[in-house]
Amino acid sequence: MPDSSSRDITAFGEQRNASDYALREYEGHDHERWDGLVKSSPGGGHIFQSHQWGEFKEERGWSPLRLILKRDGEVAGTAQFLLYRTLPVPGYLMYAPKGPWIPWDDEEAVRAFLDGVEEIAASRNVHTVKIEPELSRHRGGYEGLLRSAGFEKARYDLNFSDTIALDLSLAEDELMANMGGKTTRYNVRLAGRKGVEVYQPADFEWAFDTLWGWMLELAEHKEGYHLARPREYLHDLTRRMWELDRGRFFVAEQEGEPISIAYFFDLGEKLWYMYSASAGHKQNLKPNHLLQWEVMRWAKDRGITFYDMVSVPSPDDRHEGDPGYGVYKFKKGFGGEILEFVGCMDLAIQPRKAAAWYRLEPYYYRVYSKLKKDIFY
Q1: What's the whole-model pTM score?
Q2: CB within 8 A of 71, min separation 6: which ones?
Q3: Mean of the pLDDT values across residues 229-258?
C-alpha cells in the first residue's frame, strides 16, 4: 500500500471552506429508525448497511460504527462501518460493506464526509479505511475522485463489484418484453404450462435445510461452485433476516415436490437475489425461470422498483469457458442492465501500520479461513 501521508483531500477544490455539511456518529439503537435513514439516503442504500447486518457481524467480532452526514440539520447520507482489531498489527480496520451512501455528485458533501471519516478513524486508532461504494467505474469519474482523496484500489473486492439489475417500475408486459431473447420468456411460460408453482414456505428450518442440502450437492458435483460460508453462518444470517422481515425464501414445486429454492433480501425499494439451489431432477421444467418471474411480480406488488440479481463475472470472464458463465447467461436472460462498480478502495490513515496490514492481509485471511472454516469479511 502506498504511503498516503502526502494525500490532500482538498484536491476536490482549491481550499477548505466552511461547509453546510457535518459528519456525526449515530448513537441510536432502533433498527427501524436506522434502516429508514439508510433507505432514504441517496441511491437507496444496501442491505449490508442495515442495522441487522451490523448486529449480525458484531456477533462475529466486528464492531458497528454508524455515521450520518447532515446538512443544515437534515440527514443527507449514511454509512455503516465495521471495525476489526487487526492484531498482530496494532489498531483497527474500518470497513463499510457496500457503502457509504452519500450525495457523491456534490463535491462539498463528499469533501465533508471524507474529512469527517478521516477524523473519526484517527480518533479510534484506525490504520486503514475500506469503502465499497456502488459507484460506476465507467461514468462520473468516481474512481479518480477517490484516488485524489488518497484512496487506492484494494487488493481484493470483498463483495461483487459487477452485477445485473432490473427496473421493476416497468409494467409486467414491458418486463416480459425486455427479456433477452425468446428463450427466457419461453422457459417462464413452459414452467407454468408444466404445472410448476411458486410459493413462500412458512417453515424456515425446512426451507433452510432444503437449500443447504442442495447447495452441498452442487459443491460436490459442479465445477467452479464452492461454499464460501459454513452452515452456521448462513443459517444464523438467513434466520435473523427472516425473523425481521428482511429475508425470505421462494420455492418452486411441481405436483407437490420442491425442485428449486432461492433466498432474497429486501430493504425499502430494493431486492437482492442472494442464495439458490435446485434439485437434481425436473430441471427440464425450468423452475428457476418461473421462480424469478414470480419473485419479480411479488416485489412489484410491494413497491420494490430495483432488483439486484447479485454478482456476474468480470468482463474478461464472460465467456463459455468460465464456470460462472451459465449463471451469468441465466441472469442476463431477464434483460437487466450490467452495473460495474469501482469495488473496494482503501485509505491509509496511519501509513506504516496500514502498509504492515496490507502485507499481512493475505496470510491473515488464509489462517483465519483454516481456523474458522469461514472467510474473514
Answers
A1: 0.92
A2: 20, 21, 22, 109
A3: 97
